[in-house]
Each structure stands twice: as structure tokens, then as C-alpha cells.
Amino acid sequence: MAKKDIGGACAGTAKLNYVYSGGCLKFVNYQNQCQQFCLDGVRMKNEKGEYLTSSRLKVNNFLVTLVGQTQNDDIQPKVSFVFEIEDKEGSKINIQTSVSQRNLDVQR
Q1: What confidence tens digit (pLDDT) does each residue in 36-72 have?
Q2: Residue 108 belongs to some domain of the structure
Q3: Which end of the chain, C or N, has fewer beta carbons within 10 A?
């Protein structure tokens, strides 16, 4: 779950819900922590630099779709990720998930 970055300390701009730049997605989670997911070569890592995918897997594609990320667009924020992951034997799988803020995106 994500929430609006009122002060802009995480997203870099006040009142943004999330930002995607340089292969990294950043947002404030429900515990007020800045969370980041990045494609680092062929592996995913978090804001602490910890890898989230096994070294036995290769992330071929990391696609991000943003909807409603600004304060004035009247759209409930949502970000969708699509991953194409391949193992060492060449088997591939596509995985998709979405993240949204729990509260309605009212102007503040």
C-alpha cells in the first residue's frame, strides 16, 4: 500500500504519489517509509540495496505503468508492474502486480 508524499522527501516533489525514473519506482508506504524498487542489470533491488530476486533468475523486462500520480488529475493513484523473469534453463514467466494508496486521493 502507498500514500501521498505530502512533503516531497521521497518522490522529490510535494504531493506526488509516486515517481518512476531511471528504472526505479519510489513511493511512501503505509508506514511512512520511502520505498524503492529498481532494476539493477538483470535483478531487482530495494532502497537498502538488497536484491529481491535470486541470482539464479534474470529479469528480462521491468515495465511500469503509472496512473493518477499527480494531485490534480482526479484519478485514484495506481502503479502496475510487469516483470518477465527467466531461469537458467530458459523457462520464462510473466508476473504482474499493482500498488495503490489505501486512502482516497483527495487534495491536500
Answers
A1: 999 999 999 999 999 999 999 999 999 999 887 777 7
A2: no
A3: C
